[in-house]
Amino acid sequence: MSPIIQNEVIxxxxxxxxxxxxxxxxxxxxxxxxxxETMDVSGTEQxxxxxxYFDIPDLQAxxxxxxxxxxxxxxxxxxxxLANVILQRCDELNLxxxxxxxxxxxxxxxxxxxxSGVQTRIRENYxxxxxxxxxxxxxxxxxxxxxxxxxxxxxxxxxxxxxxxxRNHSNANKIFQExxxxxxxDSKKKRLLRLCDTRFIERHDSIIVFLELFECIVxxxxxxxxxxxxxxxxxxxxxxxxxxxxxxxxxxxxEKLFSLTLPLSIFLQNKSSDLVSAVKYANEVLSSLRQMRExxxxxxxxxxxxxxxxxxxxxxxxx
Length: 319
Description:
- By secondary structure, this protein is an alpha/beta fold.
- It contains 13 helices and 5 strands.
- The longest helix is centred in the N-terminal third of the chain and has 25 residues, at 3-27.
């Protein structure tokens, strides 16, 4: 099929799916708008629009749904234009905005501003559409502040460079894979994960995989450093950085912190989560963090013991 026909088929499928989604939304008593901006591969800013609502099938239990209803290309990121395109899209979908009881965006001023943000402009016409700051985004912002601590920032910088070395250079990756095959053949992890700047779920996964393959990483870096490749000096530098006490302690701290925040982050992104449960879960995590702070000596002793074990087993040195 030609590109034109392919696009027509895709558009037809989209229209059919969207029509069925809108039928369900129209039967709901109320709904909320969820919006977020991102740039596509062509460099065009796109607004992703989703609708959160209760679907009540005949003679069945209600189902909480979040359905995607389209991307909207954005050329003007002012709050006025964003509010207009959202309302225009809702009008095109024949959504009854008097049923809109909520809005969920990130905390950017043009979206969340209480004077002239998107949420304020929409509430001027539909006052029941209460704004709720995306809880997972708030958690990410909080964790981003943690990343500003120099020791943690430097640690994640080393992890990122190691990941890039093995993922971007075939020779380095070959040695890494051979090392895994020889020294950790039973490991299900065969590839390091990149650190995502915004999604801390992926950061935690990256740290977990890094620690699981830490021994193989160190051995591979050491072997690459002995070669005469252009990346050998980089491998030598990273090998030295990975055995410093600051790095070892920091990466164990990250793993311990993320082990608490990861389940919360996953929960907050679950479409079936509700506000009461989210607040309860967040308070439980906060309580655990406070307990760690109150028993700081015991907590750090545990962290130091894990870091010391890495140092002794991998580098034959004491912290």
